[in-house]
Write a structure and sequence with these properties.
The protein has helices at 71-77, 92-106, 139-147, 210-214, 239-247, 249-255, 296-316, 331-334; strands at residues 25-33, 36-44, 53-64, 79-80, 84-88, 121-124, 165-166, 169-170, 172-182, 185-196, 226-233, 265-272, 277-278, 320-321, 327-328. The chain is of the alpha+beta class and 336 residues long. One of its GO terms (molecular function) is aminopeptidase activity.
Length: 336
């Protein structure tokens, strides 16, 4: 079996995951019962009340075949108000309700004396392995994933990644990190992906067109999957700069062989932990931001960490059998 390639020249953080960005944690709730192969994954930017201490963020829609919720307000206001949730396509509404209830429990003024809360839920379609029509994801599963958030988290066929496929193999949750120096200071950038995209002949790993050697067929079926890419950084950036950072996820995605097919929902979100926006404030203290002309190392870190996170999802995934006996082998199973 081939070794896991290290993408690019930048070094990884000690954990090699998005949790190398201080304060970021991830939790899963995995549903593994026969035809139900799905779950919920939650990314917490910090361990405080995110509604009261909002996190600067921005998103890029690379290809918009998706059913996420909350992106309009993120685009308008440039902040997160809840943890980031990942699940299957038909679980979006349920998870959003759970986020709303959780925010109201912590802040009863929401929707009355205070504005409403903006839930943020991303999705991919896991219907090949998971009986998505069963609507198995419940609000309790979101709460379980939220409570499980930790810097040491599993990757692969877990949480929202349980039923996901990638390059006709088992996909799922992957994560990676890269350190970059900007004007003499070191900043950490990390990525977490929900990988559910691609056809085997397209697969490129570390610049090697591996899929062509693994595929027995030259037939190129349409790419109908999706990928959600979450990028965290501790570099002081504003929402405009974070949108630019999120766009670099597309570079990392393209290197693996994706062409963002017609039926693919490819969305990236970037946030910074360097500062927060208080809910109750007349003025907001903004730190000295990285100058635009000095962003290139962070762009490289974002692209490399996204590509490495996709590689991590493939190498971390375990085979899964689900709906109607459908099965996805892992990359490890398919290599000689």
């Amino acid at each position: 079996m081939m070794d896991v390639p290290h993408i690019g020249s930048l070094t990884a953080g000690p954990l090699g995951t998005i949790a190398d960005v201080a304060g970021v944690t991830v939790g899963h709730c995995t549903l593994d019962e026969g035809a139900v192969q799905t779950g919920v994954t939650v990314v917490r930017p910090h361990d405080g009340d995110i509604y009261r201490s909002k996190v600067p963020a921005a998103a890029s829609v690379i290809n918009g075949f998706g059913k996420s919720i909350g992106l309009v307000q993120v685009d308008e206001l440039g902040v997160l108000e809840t943890p980031i949730a990942l699940t299957n396509t038909f679980g979006v509404g349920t998870v959003a309700n759970a986020q709303i209830r959780g925010a109201i429990e912590a802040n009863p003024q929401i929707g009355r004396d205070w504005p409403t809360v903006n839930p943020l839920v991303f999705e991919c379609n896991d219907g090949y392995l998971n009986d998505i029509q069963a609507l198995a994801v419940q609000e309790a599963h979101y709460r379980h994933a939220l409570q499980a958030c930790d810097a040491g988290f599993e990757r692969g066929s877990v949480g929202a990644g349980r039923g996901m496929s990638c390059f006709d193999m088992k996909g799922g949750i992957g994560s990676a990190s890269r350190a970059a120096r900007v004007a003499g200071r070191e900043f950490m950038t990390g990525a977490l992906v929900l990988a559910n995209f691609g056809r085997l002949p397209m697969l490129t790993l570390g610049g090697v067109a591996l899929g062509r050697t693994m595929s027995a067929s030259e037939e190129q079926k349409p790419e109908q999957g999706s990928i959600i890419m979450i990028i965290a950084t501790d570099a002081p950036l504003d929402a405009r700069q974070l949108r630019r950072l999120s766009l670099r996820a597309a570079a990392g995605l393209a290197r693996t062989g994706s062409v963002y097919g017609h039926g693919s929902g490819d969305i990236a979100l970037a946030f910074t932990t360097a500062w927060t926006v208080p809910h109750l404030a007349d003025f907001v203290a903004v730190p000295a931001l990285v100058a635009d002309a000095r962003l290139d190392p962070l762009f490289q870190a974002a692209a490399d960490s996204v590509e490495q996170a996709i590689v991590d999802a493939l190498f971390s995934a375990e085979p899964v059998t689900g709906r109607d006996g459908n099965r996805r082998l892992s990359l490890k199973d398919m290599q000689p």
